[in-house]
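Budget justification note: compute hours in this period were largely spent on complex prediction jobs such as the one shown. Inputs:
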Amino acid sequence: MKRMKLVMVGNGMAGVRTLEELLKIAPELYDITVFGAEPHPNYNRILLSPVLAGEQTIDEIILNPLSWYAEHGITLHSGKTVVDVNRRRRVVVASDGTGVETTAEYDRLLIATGSNPFILPVPGKDLDGVIAYRDIADTNTMIEAATKYKHAVVIGGGLLGLEAANGLMLRGMQVTVVHIMPWLMERQLDDVAGKLLQKSLEDRGLNFLIGAQTEALISGTDAGAAPGSVRPEPVEGPARVRAVRFKDGSEIPADLVVMAAGIRPNTTLALKIGLHCFNDGRGGIVVNDTMQTTTDARIYSVGECAAHRGIAYGLVAPLFEQGRVCATHLAEFGIGRYSGSQTSTKLKVTGIDLFSAGNFTGGADCEEIVMSDPYGGVYKKLVIQDDKLIGAVLYGDTVDGSWYFKLLREGRKIHDIRDKLMFGESNIGDTGHEGNTRAAAMADSDEVCGCNGVSKGTICKAIKDKGLFTLEEVRKHTKASGGCGSCTGLVEQLLMFTAGGDYSKAPTKKAMCGCTDASHQEARDAIKREHLLTIDSVYRLLGWRTPNGCSSCRPAINYYLISTWPKEAIDDPQSRFINERSHANIQKDGTYSVIPRMWGGETTADELRRIANAVDKYKIPTVKVTGGQRIDLLGVKKEDLQAVWQDIGMPSGHAYAKALRTVKTCVGSEWCRFGTQDSTQMGKDLERALWRMYAPHKVKLAVSGCPRNCAEAGIKDVGVIGVDSGWEIYVGGNGGIKTEVAQFLVKLKTPAEVLEYSGAFLQLYREEGWYLERTVHYVNRVGLDYVKKKVLDDAAARTALWERLQFSLDGEPDPWFEFDRAGVDTRQFEPVGAV
Amino acid sequence: MAEWKPICRVTDIPVLGARRVNRSQGHPVAIFRTAEDKVFALLDRCPHKGGPLSQGIVFGESVACPLHNWTIGLADGCAKAPDAGCTQRFAVKVDGDQVFLDAEDLRSVAIEPATV
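Corresponding output:
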């Protein structure tokens, strides 16, 4: 088949990312030609600041070396600017500046021309030594100027301006930042944070002129040399800048002036060839949700030059998302829509932690929560409107930036967590990384990820060497934050400092895995709406890209099917993890552990005798009492599992499954002199009612007989605490990665009510939770109010939930004894054809 | 001329599943069956931490190791990037419903003392 021709105008990050995505999914579809005005392959523009600051070199920030273009058969014309496009004949024309023209035909055209710096229209803007800060050439000019000259003036105290000023200062120049607004980074920070930032940068040696209006740039020929300037020999060409003059008549010396007063989408070519562009705001080429220009269906546009729903984005995360969507359409898959992004900002000045997102200035009907510790250099402001977080500014401690950003994007009601909001997601029982919250302050050898033992140095090196951009990529390559995830905030900070840009996930909807664009919610909804009963039918309906999924999506879909359509959908053991397939817990050496069920933590002499005999008979190396009041037999060979179960003769404890694990109890009123309720009986009743219950994740319960709470009910998925007048029910607790205290749900009178309410809550979780989402995360996602509405306020709904759970569990087999009914493939316990 | 050792029938292996073949000498071998009834054989030992691949979830022509979820290609025995490492392959022949393994491979590949 003859390949189509794809031409890309612009050789920057957004465009090349689009090509990478395209090559991943349709490597053979196009002959690709790329025109880039700069004489370089694609590099990481965000990292120009560290290059300027002397922390990295140009070579280190190249993302796609020339060999990458060659490997993928891409024709690269670097140093050639596209000057015209004949849309009727579908030909682009490029010029190398010397009058030599290059042409290329296209079937599809991708315009990714990025943006241009905004140059203040003041006299003297064309003088030698006056530059913008946009590309490698500008960076090199600054580096060179720093070796020859002394005084630099940066016009614009925004993100880019401050990074430029910091870099020039580190290269030995005396730098003054001129900023017309009342505080720095006024588009990203409020006045308090802006002033804290200024103070901290002043301490490092930067000078600021706040509120100063630039009137003109003055050349060396205008008047005498500025005091203190080292004057080089006069050279031919335009006169060099010598000073900056302000509206009030004052002047400051300047051998180098950097204009960093914002960027504008580069629409020169687009306008010339008649593509519709926005005139107001920052402008930009108008594109629809498929990143197609609204003027010409053959022409797409991504990146800083494109205006989607009126917004031209300048941060890398939304641009990469655009690229991904655009690639699926170029590949003719016709899936994926870009629906806009919310953005957040962080500053790349080493040692300064700063984060902002959303509307942080507030307004008439907004409330603010503020924490200010100027001495400690920490300031946090959260802006709330209509019970939702709408903006955040963090200075000095930004570890919770991504959490706030997530709350903001999801628009979740926050009143139930309002009292904890300021202290962040990680304030309780944060484990695994020594309580560090400031990535910048950590040493290279400090451990970031306690689960996988990954140090800061290892992560930074991987980000640099492998050109990683997203949290997902860092996880894949280093395993950092791939375990419990509690160091995610730290890893995001490291990405920020090492790779630059904004790495918060742009879309609110997250695909289940690489096999699909569908989210967990969409899969759940489709299964329910369409009455789907098989994994295949789900994959077909939702357009899975892989024939039989992967180890991530298949177990999830299998769970969704059996939890949505109990007694109808057939459980597929091959879509379950080994533990749920062999009904035992695989250990690091490939042996298994066996934990029989002990109702409410009670056992008998008979049971203990049978266990002891099995331990002897099968030479089980380790016997351990678990935290869930049961006995764990470790090191059982797979071949022995069936016989061990048979000999012990106790029900499966499901300690291996995403299912009901234990119901922990204290002794209660039967023996305890403080006990007010019979917690052991209540625990046994709950366990008998709920066992064999599969769920999105493991489920643990506890019942205490008095408020002393010896069963530790406060950190269980459902915790029941007996009080003199009845029972208190708590939900969403967790004793794991992050200790989460369960939230009070309701107080009840009778054991029957405890069963019904607990069961109804768990059934709600079973029906709505996403696979591998613990109750705490489910409750946080939907809000405790929602849970109360379903379980407390609506008696009919509660009864229905409880009945559906009982229907699901009725007659469910014990997988240790009823192999056929439980779908246990017993062939797995025997090797084949031993040779 | 290769000597083929009969092992089992294709239908003895669950679809999208695996069986374990013990050897008198050396580490066991895992034989896998894909959705298209293709059969592959690898040493039952993940190149990462030695996990038994026969216990993993099979998808496409890959298996996810049950211990740390590395994805191993069934055809080449190698971990999917960015993870790196390969486990040994064994030649397989399917004749009708019968699965054979290469006898020479069984005798010679990965014959250090068996570790569980």
